[in-house]
Amino acid sequence: MSRVVVTGLGLVTSLGNDLTSSWEALCQGKSGVGEITAYDTSQYRVKFGAQVKTFDPSLYMERKEIRRNDPYEQLAIATTKQALAHSKLQIDESNAEDIGVYVGSGIGGLVTLHDQFKVLHEKGPDRISPFFINMMIVDGAPGIISIMTGAKGPNWAAVSACATSGNTIGEAWETIRRGDAKAMIAGGAEKAITPIAMAAFDNMHALSRHNENPQEASRPFDAQRDGFVMGEGSGMLILEDLDFARQRGAPIFAELVGYGCTGDAYHETAPAPGGAGLVRAMRRALQKAGMQPENIDYINAHGTSTEYNDLNETKAIKTCFGDYAHRVAVSSTKSMTGHTLGAAGAVEAVIAIQSILTGIIPPTINLHHPDSECDLDYVPNEARHAKVNVAMSNAMGFGGHNTCLIFKRYEE
């Protein structure tokens, strides 16, 4: 099967609107969390989130296109264009049929859905936007990306909750390996800081209510953690068949060598005891990569800052990695970006690749009260300089979805 390399990265988070600014903030241990400004929070228990800030969609699309695409699609378009520019990949008639798009979202066009329900109740059915459906559906993102870039290869959207873009990247890898494409645009986007989403997640007791100090609310693996912090953003990767990338002289930033995907078959929201499904996903990824746990230098954990996720992910790492679990560096960058739901797998894949490229492991901030049951090396509070040859990125989602991606330093 083909070797698959990463030739382009795009990133928008609550820390910055591009790869450079987001990465610098991550390395400095900054938090992207603050008071919500998108709507009036006076009636809501949770008044904070990790919002994307000062994002200007006009840098990436015309005014008409902005009006016809939900904010989650705008983020996906932006990171796609960033990643294509990073990769120097030109899509034209000579290669369009060999380039595909796999982009997902956990929820899709929730901003548009919220706005259009208001229109329906206040102005009536005749005033609903004719663009509403394409703005709301999850496959609106890969559809519009295909149209805007001209990519005519395999095209679909994944939805697997917070594991979504771990799946899109992994399945894009499989698509190239089996010869169904030479290059893939793969990732995810989410823009879900809306009144209904925040109320729903809060009512199910999933969100932190640490309103008194929002920047310290996302506390993965900390004994005082009380829930995740909603985030927004998008991550995008350009994956290419190695021979295709070499022929066009592409920059190569890493190689994707392993992917595992499993289901818990256990509970709608809680992970399987001991993180059993994640254990199987990590083992499958390692097997495909032809690696042992000791080959992994860094794990970007799912690390949501909820009681059960952090505990069970820790147990899963211990089960899969054995004695080495206490020696491998593990961090949760959700402590800074918040939880970007369906975009998390891609956002954190980009971060894992950056750790390989820069030799910097971003920290888990706000880890001040160690949990006796979460006792791994979580790179607490400050970034660490270390040579990272191989990085693993985990993602888990409601419904029992688990994904694991393994990236390694590129070698000829």
Strand content: 15-25%
Task: Supply the CATH superfamily name of the largest domain.
Answer: Thiolase/Chalcone synthase
Mean pLDDT: 97
- N-to-C CA distance: 16 Å
The counted number of beta strands is 14
Instruction: Characterize the biggest β-sheet.
Output: 10 strands, mixed
**Helix content, binned percent:** 25-40%
Number of domains: 2
Rg over CA atoms: 20 Å
State the secondary-structure class. Answer: alpha/beta
Unreliable segments of 5+ consecutive residues: none
Shape: globular
Q: Which strand order does the major sheet show?
A: 5-4-6-7-1-8-14-13-9-10
Q: How many separate helices?
A: 13
Structure summary:
This protein is of the alpha/beta class. 33% of the residues lie in helices and 18% in strands. The protein folds into two domains: 244 residues, Peroxisomal Thiolase, Chain A, domain 1 (3-Layer(aba) Sandwich), CATH 3.40.47; 151 residues, Peroxisomal Thiolase, Chain A, domain 1, CATH 3.40.47.
Please describe what this structure looks like.
The chain is α/β, with parallel strands linked by helices. The chain folds into two domains: about 240 residues, 3-Layer(aba) Sandwich (Peroxisomal Thiolase, Chain A, domain 1); about 150 residues, Thiolase/Chalcone synthase (Peroxisomal Thiolase, Chain A, domain 1), CATH 3.40.47. It is about 35% helix and about 20% strand. The strands form three sheets. Strands 5-4-6-7-1-8-14-13-9-10 form a ten-stranded mixed β-sheet, sandwiched between helices. A two-stranded antiparallel sheet has the order 2-3. It has a two-stranded antiparallel sheet with strand order 11-12. Helix 3 packs across helix 6 and helix 10 crosses helix 11.
